[in-house]
Amino acid sequence: MSEILLKSVNKVYPAGAHAVYDFSLNVKNGEFLAIAGPDGCGKSSVLRMIAGLEDVTSGEIRVDGVLVNEKEAKERDLAVVLPDYIIYAHLSVYDNLAYGLKRRKVPREIIDMKVRAAAEILGLSDSLFKKPKALSGAQRLRVALGRIFVREPKAILFDEPLSNLDANLRVKMRTELAKLHARLDGTFIYVTRDAREAMTLSTRIAVMKDGFLQQIDTPRNLYDYPANLFVADYIGSPRMNFYENSTITLEEGKIYLNFGANNKILLPKQFVARIKNADEYINTGKVVTFGVRPEDVRIDRQALQDFPDQTVSARVDVAETLGEKTQLYCQLEMIEGGKSIGDDPTQLIADVDKRAAVSSGDVVQLAIDPQRIHLFDGYTQATMLERDEQYETLPEFSEDASFVPLTPQAERQIKDEEVEQKKPAKRGR
Fold first, then answer.
1. Angle, to 10 degrees, between the axis of helix 137-149 and the axis of helix 93-103?
2. Residue 87 · residue 96 · CB < 8 Å
3. How does DSSP assign 181-198, residue by residue?
4. Residue 136 clears pLDDT 90, i.e. is over it
5. What DSSP designation does 220 have?
6. What is the pLDDT of residue 215?
7. Which residues have C-beta within 8 Å of that of residue 407, sequence separation ≥ 6?
8. pLDDT tens, 113-131?
9. Shortest CA distance to 155 belongs to which of 64, 23, 65, 37?
10. Cα separation of 220 and 238, whole Å?
């Protein structure tokens, strides 16, 4: 398999829609890379440009160092898997795997060798002469991938291949794809809107929004070190708790984070040391967005003892028992007749032990792990925190990991300038 390089790639459609802005990415040989983001973010446009199904407006795409911008899709030797991947119901597994090779008039003995080798790797050796209707969903996916694998393409590109499946089957197929990548040791590029799918499958994830790249990193680093508010919100389920209009103050030699109407927690010195340009925020009234993930809000006695200066009171509105854990939806301000849970800025979600004796209406003490909180600039939405010694990346990924996304204001300015350029010139009288 191969290495794929994208350098400053842009895509503007004939109608004028700018789908991808200045996109750069280096996919290493044998890597499983996901391109993830919400609908309309440009991820499928990137994949289609790599495959040769869409023209590149500007920039470069290279496969193993060879520029492929002007090459037709069939000349790039890349395979694409779509949601409605095709296997032929009237053909056996063997004939499905052999189909593409027969069309290319590959000698029969080579076809047989390739098909049986692929079947061995894919765990289909005992099913070679069965029809697809006798196979499980996982086996049918293996057959579809096997048809590609026997071709030995330079990379396999997946455009939301599991989107048509029900939830349970999607989970099984994710596991199946991860196993196949380990066996094939090939280069996979996988497009998905599902952040959890990207997290569970890939070596690295490139997160996109509105045509702009937001961050490229490993799933763990994206989760623990989001570059901005969007990535922090997109990665993780349930979503991170956010509190806008928070401030940082210095009181009697100690640094506090103030959020909500009356809540504040002490920030440890080790954490304060990670804040970039801390003097711009401490006692200046400059607003920040405070974020904390539900699993970093704890209710157990040990946490309350460990973090006495990071404890808040809250009323439990809903306690959901999920089997492996209990999820609490709490109200920080405890005001009667407040907003609904969905749009309440004083809501706090906590994942606690499944045996926690908590019911709706209880007022509880919640401890926030001070080393696991996140701070974002209230204007630029960029993270305010330097990475610490827990951040890990391989040397070959260091350049991508150092990528700094544009602020929402800079993205908007680029789009506004495009609109101005498209306006017809005013005619003189």
1. 20
2. yes
3. HHHH---EEEEES-HHHH
4. no
5. H
6. 98
7. 380, 381, 382
8. 989 988 888 888 999 999 9
9. 64
10. 16
Rounded Cα–Cα distance for residues 32 and 156 (Å): 10
CB-CB contact of 292 with 351 (8 Å): no
Residue 343 pLDDT level (bands cut at 50, 70, 90)? very low
pLDDT by residue (tens digit) across 144-156? 888 888 888 899 9
Strand partners, 321: 326
Amino acid letter, residue 70: E
In the chain, which segments carry CATH 3.40.50.300? 4-77+153-225
Q: Which residues, in sequence order, are bridge partners of residue 18?
A: 12
For the domain 232-377, what is the CATH code?
2.40.50.140
Could you give the CA distance from residue 302 to residue 34 in angstroms, rounded to a whole number? 38
Q: Which residue type does 371 have?
A: Q
Cα 151 to its chain centre, rounded Å, is 30
Residue count (the chain): 429
| Phi (first) and psi of residue 91, to 5 degrees | -105, 150
Cβ–Cβ under 8 Å, residues 330 and 315: yes
pLDDT in tens, 176-205: 788 878 877 789 999 999 999 999 999 999
Architecture of domain 4-77+153-225: 3-Layer(aba) Sandwich (3.40)
With a CB cutoff of 8 Å and minimum separation 6, the contacts of 327 are 238, 294, 319, 320, 349, 350, 351, 352
- Distance CA(366)–CA(348), nearest Å, equals 10
Q: Give start-end residues of each CATH 2.40.50.140 domain in the chain.
A: 232-377
> Can you list the positions of beta strands (E) in 99-211?
155-159, 188-192, 204-209
pLDDT bin (cut points 50, 70, 90) of residue 93 is: very high
Tokens 């300015």 -> residue: 413
- Kindly write down the DSSP assignment for every residue of 32-92, as one continuous string: EEEEE-STTSSHHHHHHHHHTSS--SEEEEEETTEE-TTS-HHHHTEEEE-TT----TTS-
Give mean pLDDT, residues 220-238. Answer: 96
Give the up-direction half-sphere exposure of residue 226: CA atoms within 13 A in the CB hemisphere: 26
pLDDT of res. 339: 44
